């Protein structure tokens, strides 16, 4: 109960204070040490049909205080209630068999991919794991279920010819800046759209990765020139983001559909480009130049592969990408047998 009260206090004042949330939480625990906290309520128990919803709200409140990203909280808010509705039981009665049946239905009847099933199991595991640790349920049924194994495929990076075609196909400074940022930094699309102009310092950019962890990525000469040219083309805006959100209602009238209207100030609004807009931009660019399979993540894979081929140690490649484990980085690399043969001749006696 004390933990719940502290979480509520932090959530109620988080937007009005500048102190670190973790530090504030620690100070509240110290201040309340020795006090017993109980909830005054006219209700004897939480009604059974509302219990799932009540526990889920407590879970989200806790995760918000812990600093999970808005995107993660949004996914939890959509997926977990949907899963619980389909299982159709109070959380304290859910068994591992219920979860296995749910996953079987999702794969066989709903035709969901293993990736989708694995993600849904992860969301459910996070929720039930929290309830188990907090003592709301006697066991965590997900622990009896093995992980869903996915076939590990080493995805293809762009070839040098494909990269050259994409670069030549850029019609304006905005497209050029996006492509060169992807190729130079290997950043995720979510990181790219959140870059602010103030985050750029000549050849350095601060990006926020998963879990709001900041890291520095670097721009090569081509990317520096592309970003500088793009910023010069931008009109004067209060919007701090490097790639501000487009107002398509006014923009379509000014020629955005033809690619020549993005420089007009009234075509912008608050916030930044969303992921879907960037994905659509690079997809159309790929179609324009005849390169198939163009999407933001492939630029990330290309950056990692090219860096390793040119001699960057894999540990540094991993740090550049913001990975916590080298095994994750290895999945990104697209190295052919010929690359291995050349490396063997170079390094092995």
From TrEMBL:
Listed GO MF terms: DNA binding
Membrane recorded as keyword: no
Keyword field: DNA integration, DNA recombination, DNA-binding
Keyword match DNA-binding: yes
PANTHER family in alphabetical order: PHAGE INTEGRASE-RELATED (PTHR30349), TYROSINE RECOMBINASE XERC (PTHR30349:SF77)
Task performed by this protein: Site-specific tyrosine recombinase, which acts by catalyzing the cutting and rejoining of the recombining DNA molecules.
Name this protein carries in UniProt: Uncharacterized protein
Organism: Lachnoanaerobaculum umeaense
